[in-house]
What does this fold into?
Amino acid sequence: MDDAAETLFERIVAGEIPADVVHSDETTFAFRDVNPQARVHVLVVPRKRYRNVGELAAADPDLLAQVLRSCRKVAELEGIADSGYRIVFNTDADAGQTVFHVHAHVLGGEQLGWFGG
Ligand code: 5GP
It folds into this structure.
């Protein structure tokens, strides 16, 4: 794991790296993905860093629930709460996780494909 990747989202949350912020509250922070994979692609992170969703779920399930509530809030703000959206937590190597500060991808705004099709 490289150190820059470890701290990237902490630096975005701290305002040290600019981001297109969609939603912010006491415990979570949401901003647009720099390399969007759908018309709407927003990342939701807890302000407190955990490596992945498994660690977050084990250590602080209430905070995980807050992350999910923020995903719903993002969907509402982006106008995709009714048309549908996908929440993805890439978790470690085989899933291609590259930033080791747990983040939910909120994807939507179009018909989404699935693996291999
Ligand atoms: P992962 O592959 O870890 O699940 O997702 C990391 C995501 O962070 C990727 O979708 C990538 O495009 C996004 N990302 C990487 N660096 C930056 C950045 O500096 N700013 C923003 N807004 N997104 C980033």
